[in-house]
Amino acid sequence: MRSLFAAAFALVAFVCAPANAQQQIDPPFYVVRDADSTMYLYGTVHIRPRGAEWGTPRVREAIAASQDVWTEIEISPDADARAMSLATQLGTAADDRPLSSWLSPAEKSALDAALTRMGIPPAALEGQEPWIAALTLSVVPLMQAGFDPASGVDRAVDAYAGSMGKNMRTFETIEQQLGFFDGMSAEVQREMLREAIEQAPDMAPMMMQLSNAWEQGDIATLTALIVDDTRVNYPEMYDLILVQRNNAWMPTIVNELNGAGVDFIAVGAAHLLGSDGLVAQLQARGYRVERAH
Predict the structure, then answer these.
(1) At what angle do helices 186-199 and 130-144 cross, to 10 degrees?
(2) pLDDT digit string (tens) for 232-281?
(3) Which H helix or E strand runs over 40?
């Protein structure tokens, strides 16, 4: 469930065709240094096919060299269970506001058709709020196409770092992350649901384009397709999911750089990119940020 939500962060869920562990990739990866500290910034994807590569040798070396390894939220079986429970609590619709009440008759018919194609009973989502229903409609087609939330890059980073006994740290709590969705305005939630219904049949092909850009480290394409498009077409979501969270993380990041040692930060790739991204914010504060290949 955690990966389902992280995947739909949007913006940040890129997938790719099945691959093997020897696949050559060059994802968004940066390094920041000052006199006594080093910080690696790794742009992740939250859902991947089983067996797909999650990092380069350079990424693995950077994790090995780091004292602290950061992810967006805690990654553990206990955290997954808490996320499931909280998602059920927050995502359950009021008795007088079922999912179908958010849709026109034509949109409801399209929803029923999409669910039928997925093998899900049309009434299954009726008791859900729009944001959680939209996430389901976005992620289920990917999973049915062979993608696995358990193979997300964040989870691989966490497992690799944990096996080395690294100090695992997080920027947010599960409650905060799910709260971003639950706090969306009714207008944004309805638009999110309508687009999920419309795009469900094409979800995997759409993500292929983003996947290729991520694997190739094509920053311009990623920025245009994810960050710029969201900022222009969905300004409230852009501010809530990217700007506010990036701004909240920056004091912690700067505090780490003001200290000494080596940190490795693994967050959704969209958080690194664009004028409001972590890379641009660090550069604006006078730090030299370089691509690390």
Answers:
(1) 20
(2) 888 988 998 899 999 999 999 999 999 999 999 999 999 999 999 999 99
(3) strand 37-44
Q: Which residues are registered as beta bridge partners of 70?
A: 169, 265
Give the integer Cα–Cα distance in Å for 231 and 265. 24
Bridge pairing between strands 167-170 and 261-268: unpaired
Rounded Cα distance, 86 and 63, in Å: 31
Q: Is the dihedral of CA 175, 152, 237, 292 positive or negative?
A: positive
Length of the chain: 293
Q: For 73-86, b where at least 16 C-beta lie within 10 A, e where not — what string? A: bbbeeebbebbeeb
The encoded tokens of residue 166 equal 């690294």
Nearest to 153 by CA among 161, 145, 144: 161
Distance CA 187, CA 10 (A): 17
Q: Give the percent of the chain with pLDDT over 70.
A: 92
Assess contact for 180 and 240: CB atoms under 8 A: yes
The identity of residue 89, as a single letter, is Q
